[in-house]
């Protein structure tokens, strides 16, 4: 088997440099794992997974290569082995996968394939009865049949599905399958059947029933516990496994089970007690869980104990493995691998799947492999194997032995090297060669000797082949060549060294202060050798500035020897350290400056109301950032539900300077909820306001504001109506706010008072039949709240209600003026006892919803009512009115409005212009039967400048002449006139300035636009618009 693998291996070409080696040996992606399958599924397949990179694996069973070509039941899929028509005898065993390619071979971990089964119980007849006395303990044996795979046990009592329930008196061992009853009771009499389950095959078999019978010779007396179920003296347990220890005792009374460690160490929280403490379960077993455990069974008759030791073992686990390695021919290899395990694992080494034997150049000690003076045949895949009796693990790595002539293809000298005068130059000679090459340096054609001490030891040849020149001068400028040689060949690389003058910074940025929002340029300019390539960069507070991302504020300006930085619209966060970095081919310089950005102060914080009265509030706050300029003062602002936004408030002291963090706000209104905030200022300006303080209400107080605009009058007979402007809520100073109304007849002394408890009321009516009409009263209104009465307003004179006029107007006449207007005339009333303030005309047609009225104050006796409907009968009446309302109406008079004017405009309008005279002609408008007859036409020549307006012309003809100014534009419209009013207007005619030109065509047109004639006139051209 190993020979067949060896024949597939070729001698690969060795790369020239260990840094560039690509390791292509096989690598495991997936290795096989143990598998257990039911034996009673002949059509089932078994898949043992195995997958490697760059390899098609081989399989072995129990160390023998599987010949897949002649095996119809086994085949591979992607490296995995698939077995069909499973056969227990042929397929059970240990499988291993071998991955190989031209670089070598590796073995996978081992995996076992087992088959699970469960036979039937041999005898299906009823088992012998078990006779016990009541109170005695009993064990019913299960005796499971032959099997493979993990089993679980249960017992049926009498018949399915009545299973025995475990408790402190009954226990089913999952180790033996037996049923233990610590103390038999009469209810336990019956038939017991053992149920065995295979967890892999999921098969279930039942034993024959075992009768449990009570003896008739009396009840068993009490006796001390007898432990029937206990764990072995030694319990081997694997790392991270779950360990279950069983302990159960027979006894009367029923014993109690307890557990402890003989070392006295308490159980960790992960340890669980189950089945009335009959099972101790230790999950995820670790080394510290090993030791002696004791089970104690106890009742009042005595106690008994059982002990056993858990011994810890662990499969090998890697602590250190080797890695892929490439070494030059004749070098030495040393690999070491380390593994942990219990017992301690042993080590062996494989090369391409074969055992490595320690002899000659090859030495093996514990987990270390060393090979001296490597040759090409040592290349291959190596595996370190760690093994103890509980497991075996493999670690793989590839060894490549390299042999090649020198090459500078990956690390040649730069064709042109630049160095600053006075600096140090290092020229590296790093050929790729296996074994490493011997190198020498040439300056031009002159070989530089390793022992040379020319130029006061400025030139040094280091052991690794590097050439170092210190304090270089222009004399060092030359071509330098490194020559490398080993037994496989020779190679060289050459570079030309030129010496440049040092670069100088000619203009540097300086520390400065600037105000937020301004822009500046930080200079950074140099003088340098023209042979150098120069680049500029800027860092801000240690971070390189990204000019694309931060283009809103930062921009590089200047030419090839200038790296000035422009900062636009500077913000507070732009303050800090700016560093200009100048990079050339030979050196790097930098210069820096501190930029201090000043701005308005930051917002103060923690504004609190320390003390509050009815008109003052004492505030405190903490300062915000001064943003580069000391805080010079603070402004206090307040807000209430009654203000629009924040308002500045008065304080004590009047000016709050920047050193103060407290102030007293004065002039507040009582019983108002206030919020306060603080704004800081400095020489730059006002900052952002602080967060608002908690809402705080001032204390209440007696009202200090009287109602305003006290007046009144009007109302109905025997009433005194008093009105005032309510006091705003923010001036009411407390709860329980209301008004006190005081009044008295003019000339008297005693006041009559009334109280209104509704703050929003602004009117009071006093009714008394003894009040004479239109009698003067002194009136004043005051305010009050729960704290007391406030001030009264100044005294106002208010007249009591007067009576309506008692007489209706006479000699009422009407005239229909047009389709929408009626004129009403009446005779003024003679002197009457009541006041007359004016007249009111009421009108309506036959529909009740068209009632309207027009009032005219004073002694006028004529009114025009407009906006009426055409050709409609209206009923009109007139009444005098005063503050008490209208008096009696005159007798209604009916009048019919005129028919509506024609709704058609004059058509076929023609016009001519001679000099400044415009002549217009149009067709007459004929009224329909439902329209008023045409009585004439209204011609409106309107100047577009007010100072040249021409009077409107009314004519009963269908032609008219107009004299127009030569210096104006005109808009002319014609309407038909009738008794019903003006008809629809014609399309407007636009006449432009006559002085615009000396000779234009005059066009004779009609409306709509239809040119009739064209005459040659010595006049400007006019157009219709």
TrEMBL record:
Residue ranges of domain Fibronectin type-III in the record: 603-701, 706-803, 808-900, 905-997
Region ranges (Disordered): 687-715
Topology term for the membrane: Lipid-anchor; GPI-anchor
One annotated Gene Ontology cellular component of this protein: side of membrane
Domain (Ig-like): residue spans on this chain: 26-114, 119-207, 225-311, 316-400, 406-500, 502-590
Family matches, as CDD domains: FN3 (cd00063)
Record's keyword terms, sorted: Cell adhesion, Cell membrane, Disulfide bond, Glycoprotein, GPI-anchor, Immunoglobulin domain, Lipoprotein, Membrane, Repeat, Signal
One GO MF term attached to the UniProt entry: cell-cell adhesion mediator activity
Keyword Membrane found: yes
Subcellular location: Cell membrane
A GO biological-process term: brain development
One Pfam entry name: Ig_3
Domain of life: Eukaryota
Entries under InterPro entries matching the protein: FN3_dom (IPR003961), FN3_sf (IPR036116), Ig-like_dom (IPR007110), Ig-like_dom_sf (IPR036179), Ig-like_fold (IPR013783), Ig_I-set (IPR013098), Ig_sub (IPR003599), Ig_sub2 (IPR003598)
Summary of subunit composition and partner proteins: Interacts with PTPRG.
Family: Belongs to the immunoglobulin superfamily. Contactin family.
Protein's name in the database: Contactin 3b
Species classification: Eukaryota, Metazoa, Chordata, Craniata, Vertebrata
